[in-house]
Design goal:
Distance between the termini: 9 Å
Number of helices: 7
Structural class: alpha/beta
Radius of gyration: 15 Å
Shape: globular
Number of strands: 5
Order of helices and strands: EHEHHEHEHHEH
Strand content: 5-15%
């Protein structure tokens, strides 16, 4: 697969849709650097989410700036490869921050129905995000618009099929090369 070395793919969507797993597998398959936006949350943010409290924009904006700085640091350290980040990026305004600060960004929007996401969230035991946070995330979600550089992938299938679809979409599009 031939990709522009300066492309950053941000795998986005609501909690439980499989962002981190898809982004990790994707980065392995395309020999990209990987970052998980969850690693950039402040302790205050993580505590709030553990308690089932949604983050405010005031809490999210410093986090998004940190994610962008982290991606750019990885890009500087490894300019010879693409980067892949897992980040919810639920709202257009959040994606605008990332797009403004990270050159050549493509969003990979993982879409799945609520029932499937709830099933996945119920199965995981090692994440700070409780299932009750899903409703708020679904309400806040603004899927990428036609003017945003993105692909949309059905994430209701198993992870391998989802990753295969993401890579196929990237491979078949001249926009990402």
């Amino acid at each position: 697969m031939t990709l522009a070395q300066n492309t950053t793919f941000i795998v986005m969507g609501v909690c439980g849709v499989g962002k981190t797993t898809v982004a990790q597998l994707m980065s392995d398959r395309i020999s990209a650097s990987f970052l998980d936006a969850d690693d950039f949350h402040s302790e205050e943010n993580v505590s709030a989410m553990r308690e089932g409290k949604p983050l405010t924009d005031a809490m999210r904006f410093p986090w998004l700036h940190g994610v962008a700085a982290g991606v750019n640091a990885v890009r500087r350290a490894r300019p010879d490869r693409p980067a892949v980040a897992a980040c919810s990026a639920l709202k257009r305004s959040y994606r605008d921050i990332l797009r403004e600060r990270i050159p050549n960004t493509v969003f990979v929007y993982l879409s799945a129905d609520e029932r499937k996401i709830r099933e996945r969230m119920a199965e995981r035991s090692d994440h700070f995000m409780p299932v009750q946070m899903l409703e708020g995330q679904l309400a806040a979600l603004e899927p990428p618009g036609g003017d945003e550089r993105h692909i949309t992938v059905d994430a209701t299938r198993n992870i391998e099929a989802t990753v295969a679809q993401v890579l196929s979409e990237i491979e078949s599009s001249d926009a990402f090369a």
